[in-house]
Amino acid sequence: MKLGLVVDLDVCVGCHACAVSCKQWNTSGTTGPLTDYAPYDEDPSGVWFNRVRHFEVGDFPNSKTVNMPMSCMHCEQADCVDVCPTGASYKRAEDGIVLIDQDKCMGCNYCSWACPYGARELDRDTGTMKKCTLCVDRIYDESLNEIDRQPSCVITCPAHARHFGDFDDPNSNVSTLVRERGGHQLMPELGYSPTNHYLPPRIMKPQQTAETPRKSLISSVKDWVNQSVAR
Amino acid sequence: MHPAFSVIAFTVSSGAGFGLYMLLVMAHVFGFLTMERGTIITATILAMVLIIAGLLSSTQHLANPKNAWRAFFRFRTSWLSREGVFAVLFFPFAMLYLLGVFLSDTGSIGFFTKLMGLFGVMLAFATLFSQGMIYGCLKTIKQWNTPLTPTNYILLAFATGALLFNLLLAMNGHESLGMMGGITLGLIFIAMIAKGIYYFWIRTPSSSSINTATGFARGKVRLLDVGHTAGTFLTEEFGYKTAKGQLNILKVVVFACGFFIPFLLTTFMVVGASAAVFSALLAFVVAMVGITAERWLFFAEARHVVNLYHGAQRT
Ligand code: SF4
Ligand code: SF4
């Protein structure tokens, strides 16, 4: 199995619900807590597994806002695992999930340097590295209903922009989406072969907003007359 | 990249230590310098002290040092692990060599001690190479991902080690100072050329851009909002920025203090032997300042690709 996510950039509205629900679920999960430093102060900071960035693609009027949630891509060629000197970072053979053993990590930050996607964050409180677990403590939990055996972010997304599945199975929901919608990976040139894919926005006709077409001479004269009469 | 003082101190100090050890043992074993037993013993101990000081300083940057002992177990894949293993393996051989010299009364040693010394040299070299590869193997940082990185680490270790060796020889009023001085000049010169090539090379941008990072290759992509309202681990660790002017000033410091002044002082030491100790000391101290600046720049100029998600157009 090769488990991962597909994020539909066409429908993601950038609400950060996935990031918040991830934080809520995982702070009491296997690699929790996701420590917050000074949460009620002027300069709050803390550990997140999922962060949403907002981009503008293209130039007005052919531009589009693209919201891009990013978490661990569970790369096939995960250099973060290779560089880890303690063996705390590992990739599971059975489903490809990349995890960090909190009991082995020495907090050297090296793996976070090797990750191109900013998926790994050090928890200053516990002194260990933390990252997305693909909700490994939930997707196999047989006490949950079948529908709930998915990562927290996927269930939460109000726009249904997130999909979870097995990329090894060519007929799975995620493989089909990637095939039909031309899903792509981020920074493929680095060769990490990330499992997570992103579906590009559908191409639409640009909608006219600010600029309106030039008026004809007759209608300009009419407007002018109307204005003068009203005065 | 954020320059961590503990890591800079580690590489500078252990580099000089390994460089000194390698030059000393090769000079001794192959006999191209004649030295007294006392000089050899002092130099070996000094080298080991520098390396230990460096190793201790490197553990300072660990957030969870109680697990540091586990760092030796991923030798097969991790350069950081390899560096640790080589550095630790170095000590028994260096100790045996030291013991051999200590037990001899004139400093002339037998085959076994020579062999131990040379094994130490190989391990010192392997440690320095691994140290460079820790940075060199990262595909995420173009400014590091080059064979020039380990090359520079090794060459600078030799150059600083040679300067320190000169100082010790000068303090003992040695007649082979001229020979070692000549070798030092050569080492400084090669290190300077390699560093110059590196600075020239890192000016070309990497293949990753905001377009490949987001996957939109057909149009202009700009960041509208980073999504966080305060600093994060990522901005602290990777978002380090210095003014261009400051970087250029530091480059002048690197070339002046790291290479130029030590080169002149060493020449002076070889020619005008009267103030040899003073010149050698000054050369070493000035070089340490220059090489610290060089290490600081090595971090400050490295741009991690994650910055593409924080507004950079290229790295
Ligand atoms: S996204 Fe980063 S942390 Fe996750 S597997 Fe890839 S390299 Fe490792
Ligand atoms: S921070 Fe922890 S998981 Fe990351 S490389 Fe260091 S020991 Fe491994």
TrEMBL record, chain A:
**Ranges for domain 4Fe-4S ferredoxin-type:** 3-33, 62-94, 96-125
- Which Pfam families does the protein's record reference? Fer4_11
According to the UniProt entry, the coiled-coil residues are none
- Molecular function per GO: 4 iron, 4 sulfur cluster binding; metal ion binding
For this UniProt record, give its keywords in alphabetical order, as a comma-separated list: 4Fe-4S, Iron, Iron-sulfur, Metal-binding
Q: Does the keyword Transmembrane apply?
A: no
Position of the signal peptide: none
Q: Which InterPro entries match?
A: 4Fe4S_Fe-S-bd (IPR017896), 4Fe4S_Fe_S_CS (IPR017900), ET_IronSulfur_Cluster-Binding (IPR050954)
Q: Does the keyword Metal-binding apply?
A: yes
- What PANTHER family is this protein classified in? PROTEIN NRFC, PROTEIN NRFC HOMOLOG
Report what the protein is called: Ferredoxin
Q: Which organism is it from?
A: Leucothrix pacifica
Task: State the organism's lineage.
Answer: Bacteria, Pseudomonadati, Pseudomonadota, Gammaproteobacteria, Thiotrichales
TrEMBL record, chain B:
InterPro entries membership: DmsC
A GO BP entry is: anaerobic electron transport chain
Kindly indicate whether the keyword Kinase belongs to this entry.
no
What's the short name of a Pfam family annotated to this entry? DmsC
Q: Which domain of life is it from?
A: Bacteria
Its GO CC terms are: dimethyl sulfoxide reductase complex; plasma membrane
The GO molecular function terms of this record are: dimethyl sulfoxide reductase activity
Q: Which keywords has UniProt assigned to this entry?
A: Membrane, Transmembrane, Transmembrane helix
Listed transmembrane segments: 7-33, 39-63, 84-103, 115-138, 150-171, 177-201, 249-271, 277-298
Protein name (database record): DMSO reductase
Tell me which species this is from.
Answer: Leucothrix pacifica
